[in-house]
Amino acid sequence: xxxxxxxxxxxxxxxxxxxxxxxxxxxxxxxxxxxxxxxxxxxxxxxxxxxxxxxxxxxxxxxxxxxxxxxxxxxxxxxxxxxxxxxxxxxxxxxxxxxxxxxxxxxxxxxxxxxxxxxxxxxxxxxxxxxxxxxxxxxxxxxxxxxxxxxxxxxxxxxxxxxxxxxxxxxxxxxxxxxxxxxxxxxxxxxxxxxxxxxxxxxxxxxxxxxxxxxxxxxxxxxxxxxxxxxxxxxxxxxxxxxxxxxxxxxxxxxxxxxxxxxxxxxxxxxxxxxxxxxxxxxxxxxxxxxxxxxxxxxxxxxxxxxxxxxxxxxxxxxxxxxxxxxxxxxx
Length: 332
Description:
By secondary structure, the protein is α/β, with parallel strands linked by helices. It has helices at residues 15-48, 52-59, 67-80, 130-137, 150-165, 169-175, 192-200, 208-216, 227-230, 237-246, 266-275, 306-314; strands at 90-94, 97-104, 116-122, 141-146, 176-183, 252-255, 288-296, 318-330. Helix 3 packs across helix 11 (266-275). The chain crosses the membrane at residues 30-49.
């Protein structure tokens, strides 16, 4: 039997060898650091100093129509990572209010990343703003209507007119959702099932315009007093805002008053901006995107775009130079 010693081939480390190993380690660390620095610089130079045509192509990759629009939607689906909620009818309690969520839901549905929902609130006397809004927005609108007591039946009748008898009724059916709410002690005159059946039943539109005006004005052309005004009820503005916003099916919402009309083509411009890598940091936490609002006199047409607005300002036809504040909000 032969025994082997574990230290038979051991050779003591010379001081020069230790110094050489230390130098090699320092060189390796330096080389590794330089490689990392050069890689980062390479990426930065590639991003900021690419040829002009390539840079424009990168900026416009989400701006064109057709195939690039599909690419935009795929990118939004990835970066938003949201879930599309149901738009089914629900009867809920919200504080001391009953809420009929999706009393009417639009015929067309959207994925949560696909567009932006305009969310607003009102009572039935402001429903004449729905069609002008839709003509400019051309996307989902979520409207919370305060409808206590007799105002509930009037609200349903005017919704029926918008859905069946208005010249732009197809636009309303495609995009508008209506959510009605009222306090526990101010119930409608009839069971809710009656109004649910009524809003989906075909309407006789032969005298629809006369019926619309009759609901809003008396024979003396005075405004018909609402149930809310007759009973001195406080308009629950924040309840309406929250109902409209929480009923939106999209990730982004434009929370606004019903008399504020948005700029046409705003949605594609905003979504393309969000899809750009430079703005993705705003998606890491709940964000608010602020929009300026201009007020014009009643007899002045609503400007279509910024050049039109600037022209009105130069002519001095703007009703108020004061900028209000409106916000495009992320639902998160």
